[in-house]
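Thread: "does anyone have the structure for this chain?"

Original post by V.I.:
We have the sequence but no experimental structure in hand. Need at least a predicted one for the grant figures.
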Amino acid sequence: MIFLFTFGFEKNDKWLSNDKFKHFFVSYIIYSVSREITNKEKSATIAFSIGISKEIYDGFKKEKFSYKDLVYDVLGISFGLILLK
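Reply from O.Q.:
Generated one for you, tokens below.
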């Protein structure tokens, strides 16, 4: 957890934006594609791991880490879980 304090957080991060839609949609797609290969638990783990890895990467760049992006990642994965029962 200490590594979370080694990079910046997004300050002007809006809850509604094109970026949030992309996070939702991409997480849903990653979950859906993974679901064709493996079970729902592993698919959700794969999609979330990719999402958090991207946010950690952003934390070291100009874009900064966004917990709101992670919320939309989880919403996209959840949508996939519901839709693809």
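V.I.: this helps a lot. The chain has a mean pLDDT of 89.
O.Q.: and Residues 18 and 38 are 30 Å apart (CA to CA).
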